[in-house]
Protein backbone atom coordinates (compact mmCIF):
# COMPACT_ATOMS: atom_id res chain seq x y z
CA UNK A 1 0.00 0.00 0.00
CA UNK A 2 3.03 2.27 -0.38
CA UNK A 3 2.16 3.55 -3.87
CA UNK A 4 -1.62 3.64 -3.97
CA UNK A 5 -3.37 6.70 -5.43
CA UNK A 6 -4.33 8.02 -1.96
CA UNK A 7 -0.77 7.57 -0.68
CA UNK A 8 0.67 9.30 -3.75
CA UNK A 9 -1.68 12.22 -3.09
CA UNK A 10 -0.41 12.35 0.49
CA UNK A 11 3.18 12.40 -0.79
CA UNK A 12 2.29 15.40 -2.98
CA UNK A 13 1.72 17.48 0.18
CA UNK A 14 5.30 16.76 1.23
CA UNK A 15 6.65 17.46 -2.26
CA UNK A 16 4.67 20.72 -2.28
CA UNK A 17 6.68 22.22 0.56
CA UNK A 18 9.82 23.22 -1.39
CA UNK A 19 7.60 24.32 -4.28
CA UNK A 20 5.57 26.69 -2.11
CA UNK A 21 8.71 28.02 -0.40
CA UNK A 22 10.46 28.37 -3.77
CA UNK A 23 7.70 30.56 -5.18
CA UNK A 24 8.83 33.37 -2.88
CA UNK A 25 12.27 33.32 -4.52
CA UNK A 26 10.98 33.66 -8.08
CA UNK A 27 11.83 36.89 -9.93
CA UNK A 28 8.16 37.89 -10.30
CA UNK A 29 6.01 40.49 -8.59
CA UNK A 30 5.04 40.01 -4.96
CA UNK A 31 1.28 39.84 -5.74
CA UNK A 32 1.97 37.10 -8.31
CA UNK A 33 4.14 35.14 -5.84
CA UNK A 34 1.40 35.48 -3.24
CA UNK A 35 -1.27 34.27 -5.66
CA UNK A 36 0.75 31.29 -6.86
CA UNK A 37 1.67 30.21 -3.31
CA UNK A 38 -1.94 30.59 -2.17
CA UNK A 39 -3.33 28.53 -5.03
CA UNK A 40 -0.67 25.86 -4.51
CA UNK A 41 -1.40 25.68 -0.77
CA UNK A 42 -5.15 25.36 -1.36
CA UNK A 43 -4.72 22.66 -4.02
CA UNK A 44 -2.28 20.64 -1.94
CA UNK A 45 -4.26 21.10 1.28
CA UNK A 46 -7.38 19.84 -0.53
CA UNK A 47 -5.58 16.55 -1.17
CA UNK A 48 -5.88 15.91 2.58
CA UNK A 49 -9.62 15.44 2.25
CA UNK A 50 -9.40 13.78 -1.17
CA UNK A 51 -6.79 11.16 -0.26
CA UNK A 52 -8.82 10.02 2.74
CA UNK A 53 -11.99 9.85 0.67
CA UNK A 54 -10.28 7.86 -2.09
CA UNK A 55 -8.59 5.50 0.38
CA UNK A 56 -11.99 4.58 1.81
CA UNK A 57 -13.79 4.54 -1.56
CA UNK A 58 -11.12 2.41 -3.29
CA UNK A 59 -10.58 0.27 -0.21
CA UNK A 60 -6.91 1.31 -0.14
CA UNK A 61 -6.57 2.27 3.50
CA UNK A 62 -3.31 1.22 5.10
CA UNK A 63 -1.33 1.66 8.29
CA UNK A 64 1.34 3.48 6.29
CA UNK A 65 -1.23 5.87 4.83
CA UNK A 66 -2.70 6.48 8.28
CA UNK A 67 0.82 7.34 9.50
CA UNK A 68 1.85 9.48 6.52
CA UNK A 69 -1.33 11.56 6.22
CA UNK A 70 -0.99 13.57 9.47
CA UNK A 71 2.77 13.86 8.98
CA UNK A 72 2.23 15.44 5.55
CA UNK A 73 -0.35 17.83 7.00
CA UNK A 74 1.99 18.88 9.79
CA UNK A 75 4.91 19.40 7.37
CA UNK A 76 2.76 21.54 5.07
CA UNK A 77 1.37 23.67 7.90
CA UNK A 78 4.71 24.09 9.69
CA UNK A 79 6.61 25.00 6.51
CA UNK A 80 3.92 27.50 5.54
CA UNK A 81 4.01 29.05 9.00
CA UNK A 82 7.78 29.44 8.78
CA UNK A 83 7.42 31.16 5.40
CA UNK A 84 4.78 33.47 6.89
CA UNK A 85 7.03 34.32 9.85
CA UNK A 86 9.87 35.03 7.42
CA UNK A 87 7.57 37.34 5.43
CA UNK A 88 6.44 39.08 8.67
CA UNK A 89 2.85 37.97 8.06
CA UNK A 90 2.61 35.71 11.12
CA UNK A 91 3.91 36.28 14.61
CA UNK A 92 6.73 33.98 15.68
CA UNK A 93 4.84 33.34 18.93
CA UNK A 94 1.88 31.91 16.97
CA UNK A 95 4.23 29.70 14.96
CA UNK A 96 5.90 28.44 18.14
CA UNK A 97 2.51 27.61 19.69
CA UNK A 98 1.28 25.73 16.64
CA UNK A 99 4.53 23.93 15.82
CA UNK A 100 5.24 23.16 19.49
CA UNK A 101 1.78 21.67 19.92
CA UNK A 102 2.21 19.50 16.82
CA UNK A 103 5.48 18.12 18.17
CA UNK A 104 4.08 17.58 21.68
CA UNK A 105 0.86 15.88 20.56
CA UNK A 106 2.70 13.71 18.01
CA UNK A 107 5.06 12.57 20.78
CA UNK A 108 2.11 12.01 23.13
CA UNK A 109 0.30 9.91 20.52
CA UNK A 110 3.45 7.84 19.96
CA UNK A 111 3.82 7.25 23.66
CA UNK A 112 0.13 6.41 24.09
CA UNK A 113 0.40 3.90 21.24
CA UNK A 114 3.36 2.26 22.97
CA UNK A 115 1.38 1.80 26.19
CA UNK A 116 -1.67 0.57 24.29
CA UNK A 117 -3.87 3.59 24.94
CA UNK A 118 -3.91 5.36 21.57
CA UNK A 119 -7.72 5.55 21.54
CA UNK A 120 -7.64 8.04 24.41
CA UNK A 121 -5.86 10.59 22.19
CA UNK A 122 -7.70 9.86 18.96
CA UNK A 123 -8.55 12.90 16.83
CA UNK A 124 -11.35 14.93 18.40
CA UNK A 125 -13.63 17.62 16.97
CA UNK A 126 -11.59 20.42 18.60
CA UNK A 127 -8.53 19.21 16.69
CA UNK A 128 -10.52 19.20 13.45
CA UNK A 129 -11.81 22.72 14.07
CA UNK A 130 -8.26 23.89 14.83
CA UNK A 131 -7.02 22.38 11.58
CA UNK A 132 -9.86 23.94 9.58
CA UNK A 133 -9.15 27.40 10.98
CA UNK A 134 -5.43 26.97 10.20
CA UNK A 135 -6.21 25.84 6.67
CA UNK A 136 -8.23 29.02 6.09
CA UNK A 137 -5.82 31.37 7.88
CA UNK A 138 -2.69 30.24 6.05
CA UNK A 139 -3.89 30.90 2.48
CA UNK A 140 -5.33 34.25 3.62
CA UNK A 141 -1.90 35.18 4.97
CA UNK A 142 -0.11 33.84 1.90
CA UNK A 143 -2.36 35.89 -0.37
CA UNK A 144 -1.99 39.05 1.74
CA UNK A 145 -4.21 41.28 -0.39
CA UNK A 146 -7.74 42.26 -1.25
CA UNK A 147 -10.02 39.35 -2.12
CA UNK A 148 -12.90 40.40 -4.39
CA UNK A 149 -11.86 43.98 -3.56
CA UNK A 150 -13.69 43.60 -0.26
CA UNK A 151 -11.88 41.20 2.08
CA UNK A 152 -8.46 42.19 3.41
CA UNK A 153 -6.97 38.71 3.70
CA UNK A 154 -4.02 39.97 5.72
CA UNK A 155 -6.27 41.24 8.52
CA UNK A 156 -8.61 38.24 8.38
CA UNK A 157 -5.63 35.90 8.27
CA UNK A 158 -4.13 37.52 11.37
CA UNK A 159 -7.37 37.08 13.30
CA UNK A 160 -7.79 33.52 12.12
CA UNK A 161 -4.21 32.47 12.87
CA UNK A 162 -4.52 33.83 16.43
CA UNK A 163 -7.86 32.02 16.83
CA UNK A 164 -6.06 28.95 15.54
CA UNK A 165 -3.36 29.42 18.20
CA UNK A 166 -6.02 29.56 20.92
CA UNK A 167 -7.70 26.44 19.51
CA UNK A 168 -4.26 24.82 19.33
CA UNK A 169 -3.72 25.33 23.06
CA UNK A 170 -7.27 24.22 23.82
CA UNK A 171 -6.88 21.02 21.82
CA UNK A 172 -3.52 20.28 23.43
CA UNK A 173 -5.04 20.67 26.90
CA UNK A 174 -7.92 18.40 25.85
CA UNK A 175 -5.58 15.65 24.62
CA UNK A 176 -3.38 15.93 27.70
CA UNK A 177 -6.44 15.63 29.97
CA UNK A 178 -7.46 12.48 28.12
CA UNK A 179 -3.96 11.01 28.30
CA UNK A 180 -3.04 11.72 31.93
CA UNK A 181 -5.34 9.07 33.50
CA UNK A 182 -4.04 6.45 31.05
CA UNK A 183 -0.44 7.42 31.74
CA UNK A 184 -0.96 7.34 35.50
CA UNK A 185 -2.69 3.95 35.34
CA UNK A 186 0.15 2.40 33.34
CA UNK A 187 3.16 3.94 35.07
CA UNK A 188 2.42 2.85 38.66
UniProtKB/TrEMBL annotation:
Transmembrane segments: 6-28, 35-54, 155-176
Keyword line: Lipid biosynthesis, Lipid metabolism, Membrane, Phospholipid biosynthesis, Phospholipid metabolism, Transferase, Transmembrane, Transmembrane helix
Catalytic activity: a CDP-1,2-diacyl-sn-glycerol + sn-glycerol 3-phosphate = a 1,2-diacyl-sn-glycero-3-phospho-(1'-sn-glycero-3'-phosphate) + CMP + H(+)
A GO biological-process term: glycerophospholipid biosynthetic process
Subcellular location: Membrane
Pfam families in the record: CDP-OH_P_transf
Highest taxon of the lineage: Bacteria
The EC number(s) this enzyme carries: 2.7.8.5
InterPro entries cross-referenced by the UniProt entry: CDP-alcohol_PTase-I (IPR050324), CDP-OH_P_trans (IPR000462), CDP-OH_PTrfase_TM_dom (IPR043130), CDP_ALCOHOL_P_TRANSF_CS (IPR048254), Phosphatidylglycerol_P_synth (IPR004570)
Transmembrane helix is among the record's keywords: yes
Pathway(s) where this gene product acts: Phospholipid metabolism; phosphatidylglycerol biosynthesis; phosphatidylglycerol from CDP-diacylglycerol: step 1/2
GO MF annotation list: CDP-diacylglycerol-glycerol-3-phosphate 3-phosphatidyltransferase activity
EC main group: transferase
PROSITE patterns according to UniProt: CDP_ALCOHOL_P_TRANSF
GO cellular component, one term: membrane
Record carries keyword Transmembrane: yes
Membrane topology: Multi-pass membrane protein
Family stated for the protein in its record: Belongs to the CDP-alcohol phosphatidyltransferase class-I family.
Protein name as catalogued: CDP-diacylglycerol--glycerol-3-phosphate 3-phosphatidyltransferase
The organism of origin for this protein: Variovorax paradoxus
Amino acid sequence: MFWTLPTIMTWTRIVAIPLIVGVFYLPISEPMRNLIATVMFIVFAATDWLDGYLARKLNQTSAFGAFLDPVADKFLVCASLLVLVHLNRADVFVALIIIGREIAISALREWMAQIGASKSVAVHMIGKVKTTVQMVAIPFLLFDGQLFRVIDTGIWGQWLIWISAVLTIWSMVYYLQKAIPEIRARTK
